[in-house]
Structures are given as C-alpha cells and as structure tokens.
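User: Show me sequence and structure for the first protein, then do the same for the second.

Assistant: Starting with the first protein.
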Amino acid sequence: MKHQIKSLVSQSIQALQQAGTLDNHIEPNIKIEHARDKKHGDYACNIAMILAKQAKKNPRELAEEIINHLPVSSLVEKTEIAGPGFINFYMSANAFHSVVTDALDQKQAFGRSDIGKGKQIQVEFVSANPTGPLHVGHGRGAAYGATVSNLLEAAGYNVHREYYVNDAGRQMDILGTSVWLRYLDLCGETIVFPKNGYQGDYIWDFAANLHRENGDKFRHPSDKVFNAVPADEGEDGGDKEAHIDGLIKNARALLGEQDYNTVFEEGLNRILDDIRQDLEEFGVTYDDWFSERKLFTNGSVDKAIKRLQDAGHAYEQNGATWFRSSDFGDEKDRVLVRENGIKTYFASDIAYHMDKLERGYDRVIDVWGADHHGYVPRVKAALKAIGDDPDKLDVLLVQFAVLYRNGEKVQMSTRSGEFVTLRELRDEVGNDAARFFYVMHKCEQHMDFDLDLAKSRSNDNPVYYVQYAHARICSVWRQMQEKGFAFDETAGRNALDKLVEQHEQDLMNNLSRYPEVVESAAINHEPHQIAYYLRDLANHLHTYYNAHQFLVDDADVRNARLVLISAVRQTLQNGLELLGVSAPESM
C-alpha cells in the first residue's frame, strides 16, 4: 500500500513541477511511513518539509498544495496536515479489502515484486572447508544465505546460489594425510597420530572404506612415513605445523601422484557428499558447487596475479610475490605466492571474485562468518587493484550460533572432532525450528540456540506459535464440514464490508504490510523481518480466533470471515516458505 500512496504523492509533485511551484530537475525521495498512532491516520509523509526550502514556502503551506494536487483515489478516505508539515493519510475500508482479495488472487505470488527485475545476483554461502561434517555454527549461515536468496528472488532478482568448495591448499592435504594415517593404522602399522591432524570419528570411517576397497595397496612402513619428519608438539623442539607438513611431504613422495590423489579424493568426496546431503535435507540447494581447483586449471589464479603485476600492485621479495595491499589501507602487504612457489588462499580468493564478476553478475553477495570481518577490505582492495568494481561485492557477516545443552556451552572444533553437527541438531529439534530460530535475529547479532525452547510446544516457541496459527485456520475448514456449512468465496468477497470488528480491522491492516516487509527484508538482507512479521500476524490471528466465532449463522459474515482468514493462511504460507519452514495443516 505504501507504493500506491507514494505514486499518488509523486503525481502531485509532478503536477506542482509542471506548474512551476517546484524545480523540475529535483527527484524527491518520497518516504511513506506507518503512522505511529492510529489517531493520526494509517500512513504519514514528510515530503513537504523536505521540499519547503527549495519551494520557498512554509512546509504546512506546501503540504496543503501537495494535498490539493493529489489524484482522486478510492484507497484514500481523507488526508490531514499535522505538526510542522506531515501529511497523514487515512485509508478507506476498500483499501484494506483489496489487500485481502489480492492475497487470494495472487496466492503464492502475494508479497512478491519486480523491483529487481533484470538484475543478476550471485549469493555464495556456507562454503565450509570440506574437512568435516557441518556443525551448528554452519547451520546459521546456511539458513541465512538460503533465506536471503529466497527474499531476493521474491523481489524479482535472478539469483544464482553457489557453494565455493575449498578443495585446494594445505587444509585439504592435512585431511588427506589424516585419512591415510588412519588407514595405515588399520593396515597394522604403528602410527602416532599428529596433534594437528583431523581426529574426528569420520576420519576412521573414510579410512575403513579406503581399506575395504583397496586392501594394503597404499600401505608403507611407519618408519618411512615418519622419516625426517620434525617432532610434534609436546616433544623436545616440537612444532605441530612443521610435523604435519613433513607428513604431507612424505605421503606425497611415498604414494606418488596417482595414489595420493586416490586417498585425497576419498576424504574430499565423502565429506562433500555428506555436506550436500545434509544441506539438501535442510532445504538448502545450490545452482553450482564451484571447485577452487578449477581456478588453477583454468588459469584464473595466474591471470589475477598478472593483472596485479601489470597494474603495478604486486612485487617480488625474498622469493615470494606480494600484493601491495597497504596502498589500499591494509595494515601490511599480503603474500600471493610463497617462496616455495605455492599460491596462497588469498590469491585463490582474488581469482574467485574476479571470476564471479567476469560471469556478468550485477552484484555478488558473500555470506561469511563474523570472524572473517578483517578479510573484507582486503578482498575489496584486491578487486579495486585489478580494475574491478569493489562496490559490486557485498559481504554479509554472520555470527556463529552458540549451542547450549543443559546450561553448558558445547565446544566445537573440527580438528579435534568434538562438535555438534548440523544433522544432530536437525534430528533433535527438527528442520522447521532450526530454520526459524537461525534467522530470528540480525545476522551480525550473537545467537544462543535454546534447545529446550526450540523443542517446546508452547506459545513461547515462535515457530510453533506461527505454525499453530496456520493449523488453526485449517481446523476451521474441518469444523465447517462437520457443521454442514458451505463456503461461498464470491459472497464472502462481496461482504467484506461486514468486517467491522477491531480485530478484523487490525488483521487487514497487518496483511497490507506483508508486501512491504518482504521488499524491505530483501533490500536490507534481513530475514528476521519476516520472522517478526509472521509472529505479529500469528498473534493477531490467535487473538481474533479467541475473541470471535467464524462459523456464525449469518452467511455474509461467515463467508467474509472465512475469506479474511483464508488470506491470512495464504500469507502465513508464503512467509514460512521464504524462511524454508513448513505450514502444517494440523498440529
């Protein structure tokens, strides 16, 4: 409804510009807000105060002229000038009736818009290193990224969802070597597992599968495995990083390229399959799983480094290649290629973002953990240095959710294997509660995940409260059949003027807000706006349900009320769908 009022005000201003009252070259930023007090109407606009100076008029005087030039509309009952120059709009009953019929006519499309029509957006989210199962911290990024993508689509954008698979680099070598060492243990070799290896039970599972399918094919004596490897942490002069690097080097040398890749792929593919299945079961799907290794095979990493060199933003020092990131406000320069010739993660990230923009997206959105906040200006600086537009990149930072069980914080560490997986959380509280709880707060806000609340069947549980509102409406239809009533939707639409109760007025007013909430949530990347709205709509429905009978003898009132709650049911369905939450018909 804000759009209709904005259009009316815009037409009035255009008329004043044609009359010479206002400058033709100014495009005013018209803002329509909900009135804080119903006594002051339904909506308010402050445009007269904004334009008063350039019109050389008193704001109230200009407001009067704007009102006089407003086109006639059946949506607006009356207008008033308040305070220093606010224009208050009182909407007609017909305006709110039309929202009810819009919801019924548009069905799943109700609330959707075309503000992003023709624009291509890529959203990359989760992208957890494939070194172990997803944990509850990753779950928040998954729920948030998926919902932001849904919201952008609802606003008309063409959205491409992508998972960036970090399948190159040292961490993957540590994973592959960890699998091989557990495999050697199963072969009967005496192995002292490195402190810096991946120690979860899933590594044993991968090793066992490798042994079942290949026997002792990849077996090598433990003394050769540990030959010339620096001491591990805890030993005299021990260094866990040097220790694991030494084991990786020996693994490559002993196995050779082909066998090493077989072991490497065992860990990588098994974990990726697990992550993909986990996310799909969580209602999160992708258009593409982009491999980091592709950036090396297609020459993107070399291309990005060359672009930096050609622009004079890279230099050689002590055998390494550096990016002059300090020229762009970074605290120090960053390594692109180490002295041993290995390209850094940063080099890959530059190449990946370069590749994204070369694919023609109008905007690219990264959803990262909040612990990566210092990385954002570095990546933007690199994009600027290679000649790309850093403003096309939006990085949304998500605080990890912290799980508390029995009042105690659960520690999560992929390396140690002591963590609660996303799958375990889903099994305990269900997908619906997990998806809803994850997006109830702004992404940058800290979140404690209350397991007891998520599992409760009470009004204090927000997802239960919203779903119960939907189920309650569905129950009315069952009651209608039991009582032998028939629903005449056409008659109900024609009788909406019978809805004169305050609860009914409040519900219709609330329904009118849904499209603007979806648009605002999409533009600001704030799924919690939808969660808050649904709780508010559910509250109005429950209040209405408890205060009035729907299946009354008066056919016009009965059908009108059924039409109203049908529109509420459709809106609840649409909102829950955006959040990836189901709308049950019974609970």
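Switching to the second protein now.
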Amino acid sequence: MVRGALRLVFGTATLVSGGWLMRALHGAPAALGAGPSIIRAVAEGSQHYRDGVFVNTDPASELRLSREEQRMIVRELLSAGSRSRAPGTIPVLAPDGLGDAPGPLAVSWCGHSTALVEIDGYRVLTDPIWSRRCSPSRTVGPERMHAVPTPLESLPALDAVVISHDHYDHLDIDTILALARTQRAPFFVPLGVGAHLRMWGVGEERIVELDWGQSGSVGDLTLVCTPARHFSGRFLTRNTTLWASWVLAGPSHRAYFAGDTGYTKSFAEIGANHGPFDLTLMPVGAYNTAWPDIHMKPEEAVRGHLDLTDSGPGLLVPIHWGTFRLAPHPWAEPIERLLAAADGAAVNVAVPKPGQRVNPATPAEFDPWWRV
C-alpha cells in the first residue's frame, strides 16, 4: 500500500488497488487510457519492443526502497512544512508575444515539462498539462504549486504538440481534450501513446506516432523521435508504450526537448546525428538515489547538454522541476546545483519564471527568483 502511494505521489502510472485509491479513481477510468491489448498492435513492429514491453538502450534499474524509506518519502511529500515545497509564493508571468508571429528561436516555460517553443516561425508545445493535479484523480495525487501562466484557450495557434511519454505529469487527458477542441495542430507521440489519444476521441489524422529514429514534419520543420532513458505506464502494467525525447529541426535553428530521462549515452549520439543544438530543454528535478537511472541530477543535465551541443554555445533551459512535488529534495536545490555545474562547465543557462519567455539572442539579467 505504501509502495503504491509512493508511486502515485511521484506522478508515475503504477497505482495500487487499495480501497481509498479506487474511490479516488471513481468516475475517471477514461484517464487511464488504452489497455495493453489495444497498444500491442502498434508496438509489435518496433525493434525496441521485446517480450511484450519496450526496453531502454541503456538499462535502467527498478525503484528499490525499504518500507521505512518509502514511508519517509511519502511523509516528506505530504507534509505541509516540507522542504520540497516552495517557501513562498512562486512568481508567475503571463507569456509575452502570444499575439505576435513566432520568432526565430525562443521558449516560454509554462511549468514542469510544458514549454512553448518558437523555432523558425513555428510554435511547438511540449508535454502540456494544465490540470491542477498530475493524476488520474482530481482529488488524489501531486498538486500544482503555482497557477498556469495563461488559460489554455489563450494560446496562439500551434503548429505541433509533442508528447514524450504517457505518465500523468506528461500526458494529461483534460489538457489533450481541450487542445483537440481548440487547436488544429497534430500530436507527435511515441509508439503506443497514440492509442490513448484515439481512445479519447482525437482524430487519426491528427496523430503522428513514431518510433525512435523516425521523423515527421510540419512545413519545413522536422520533428524527430529520439531515445530517452525512462519507462512508461498509466496503471498496473509498465512499458507497453514507448518513451522519447524530441529533436525540433528548422531551416536555421535546432532545439532539443529531453522529456523525462536519466542520463544516457544517446545524448552524444543525438548530438552527432541531429545537432549541435541552439537550445536544450533538460529535466533537472525529481531525482533521488533510489531511482538513479530514470531522472537526471542537475549535474547530469549539464553533461547531457554538452553532449548535445558538442560543447558549443547553445542555451540550456531547465524543465521538470518547480511545479509538482515528485521527490523529497529541497524545492530550489535543482537550480542551485544546476547553476554551480553550469558555471564550472561554461554552459549558458536561463531559468525563466513560469510563463516567462526566453530569447537566446537577448539573454535576460540574472534573477534568482526561485529563492522566494
């Protein structure tokens, strides 16, 4: 029971069947998405699919905690006075330039792994989640620590929506349904994730479902599905859908969205094949010694950025931190560690407030806003 509660707090898809959880899930079965039998038809053709599951190119260890360690982490994450909670009000900005034409290269961080990327005149939204909780339940699960920067209906016309994998903090049913209703952009997803969207009523013509190494395009913007080191699943089964990072390659600029990943040798391969990148969006939060391979520590994010940019002048923007409490480390620790590592490696970093637009060509002055 504690193990299941821990996984739910982390925002992963592995849930237990305890009575309290079943009551919390009552009325929300649609959020679970498609079952393995429906997904299998798409997954079986992939070379990365073996014995009924997808596998990492770099092996990733299972979550292993003693019962006491599990209890300690759950208590920390549920405590009102937790160090993992922001000590003050998190500043939120309304994104700039939503009514303007998209620029050559810019990014507005909307919280967690959600970012609005402008690249060579296109707008791409990554892992959108506008819900209050990253959970199949509206009453149980990690809750936002700050408001969304702008109503979802206020977003400008998007050219693509990119999904990294099907965990609840990256694939949110209510946000997907709203985007399907208010936008015309296609959804670029890893293999198997399209089954969830089809079950939720998204038209087949709007789903571009890819394996690692495959690509699609919108105009002259190419989107390449690339490896990540993680796992997937929305209920009791794991790894029936693929997880991925994404390359956004325009005529003049290249951006990389890491999604959710541990450090992987694939960074260097992706950099060699598709880079160097002008912008990387790298996860820096929700790390712990108990799961060292599926989430990066901040220092590993810097190392991965260097792999992707061939130690060039690209800009690193941190994601996967500051919005949901998914690990017991102090709230601002990921950024403090990131900046220390980046300084030692001469890496350019920008840490936007939720909603703030960052333009690599005109970097903003240093503002340690996370020390609220």
